[in-house]
Design a protein that fits this description.
Blueprint (H helix, E strand, L loop, with lengths): L6 H12 L11 H5 L10 H10 L17 H5 L6 H14 L10 H11 L20 E2 L6 E4 L2 H5 L1 H16 L4 E3 L9 H5 L3 H18 L3 E4 L2 H10 L8 E4 H10 L12 E4 L13 H8 L5 E3 L28 H11 L4 E4 L2 H12 L8 E4 H8 L1
Parallel strand pairs: 1-3, 2-3, 2-4, 4-5, 6-7, 6-8, 8-9
Helix pairs in contact: 1-5, 8-16, 12-13, 14-15
């Protein structure tokens, strides 16, 4: 194992990521005020920035791994300090020198799986399309209207496979001409990039881009906001430009064009959770709500911390692969907010959010008080 790097190398890496943005910080503390960590424990992004300025940062400590990249602090920062960029730069250095605290070590298994099998879940590549067995799902071929990029969690996770199935059933019902890449699909690479694995990200991205180009892909439909963000905002770094659409946007289009009829009743009180990478990072707030408002019998109730102030589930920034004590899970707080407004169902549109909310639900004293659903699972019941 290499030794901890000299301070100059750390600062050079931060500068390469965000210039001298971190030096603009005048320690106003707004980042700490809005950070979800301060709802469950003491944590200070302001302190991390201050330590970086004065050469006191310790990359072997767990604090640089806490950030979920939820986007609340840069949203509030009056000086454009770019806390996320600087934090990811620190993680790149820690990854290079293999300096990891114990809570972070589980994600190293994800690293190996990404390199070997193209997914972080230690699953076999050859099983990537097994979720579609028995469904009318075709391999993507040039000329098709749409590539459905399924993503890792929807391909392998038992709970989230149901979302991929629901999405497929809706697309087939609407007569959409679509296909999937199956074993040619790799992880989008978003989370591994946020944990400092820049080279792995670039390898995954290049392999995906090659598969898209070789197959003649022009328009890509995704279920995960993390895939959406990466394809739309980061893959253009590789000089490509595909049309990217999130499932909530596409469903909204299908309904408005009359290609998808909502005929069944869903007589429940529901609340919608804005995923960080769909809402704050990409500004998609209205389409999911407008879809839900069109569902007959459904009553939509807003939680505290909605829309741009949405409370992070805790899964972003690679935290989905790390250990978080039960007492420090943001998802527990969010679930209580949902129950508190009288919702019977908490609806969202992100695999990390669903994973964390389901875990929190199962650990509640009354786990049956609320259900967790993806927006496609709601629509599947009423088409």
């Amino acid at each position: 194992m290499e030794t901890v790097p000299p301070f100059k190398e750390i600062i050079d890496e931060i500068k390469a990521s965000g210039g001298d943005a971190f030096k603009r910080c005048f320690q106003c503390g707004l980042c700490d005020v809005v950070c979800p960590w301060n709802r469950v424990r003491t944590f200070s992004m302001r302190k991390i920035v201050q330590e970086a300025i004065f050469g006191l940062i310790e990359i072997e400590k767990e604090d640089i791994w806490r950030c979920t990249t939820c986007g609340r602090c840069p949203q509030e920062c009056p000086r454009d300090v770019r806390q996320i960029d600087s934090g990811v730069a620190l993680r790149r250095i820690a990854t290079k020198y293999q300096v990891f605290p114990s809570a972070v070590k589980p994600f190293r298994a994800a690293n190996a799986s990404l390199i070997g099998e193209g997914n972080p879940l230690q699953e076999e590549r050859k099983k990537r399309a097994d979720w579609a067995s028995g469904l009318s799902v075709k391999p993507f071929t040039e000329g098709m209207e749409l590539l459905y990029f399924v993503g890792c969690y929807y391909s392998y996770d038992p709970r989230l496979k149901k979302v991929a199935v629901a999405t497929t059933n809706i697309l087939n019902k609407a007569g959409v001409d679509f296909g999937i890449l199956g074993t040619r699909e790799n992880c989008c690479g978003e989370s591994i990039r946020k944990t400092g694995g820049e080279q792995i990200f670039k390898t995954l991205a290049r392999e995906n881009i090659k598969a898209f180009i070789d197959s003649g892909v022009k328009k890509i439909l995704v279920s995960s906001p993390h895939c959406y963000h990466t394809f739309k905002n980061e893959y253009p770094e590789f000089m490509v430009n595909f049309e990217i659409i999130h499932i909530s946007q596409y469903l909204y289009e299908l309904i408005n064009k009359g290609k998808l009829k909502l005929s069944g009743e869903y007589g429940k009180k529901i609340t919608y959770h804005d995923p960080c990478y769909l809402g704050r990072h990409n500004g998609i707030y209205d389409e999911p709500r407008e879809i839900l408002k069109k569902v007959p019998g459904l009553k939509l109730i807003e939680m505290p911390d909605a829309r741009i102030k949405s409370l992070c589930c805790g899964g972003g920034g690679g935290r989905i692969w790390m250990e978080t004590p039960k007492s420090e899970r943001f998802s527990n707080l969010r679930l209580e907010q949902a129950v508190g407004v009288g919702a019977e169902v908490l609806v969202t549109a992100c695999p990390y959010c669903i994973t964390n909310f389901e875990d929190s639900r199962l650990n509640r004293e009354n786990s049956e008080a609320i259900q967790i659903k993806d927006i496609t699972e709601i629509l599947q019941e009423v088409i």
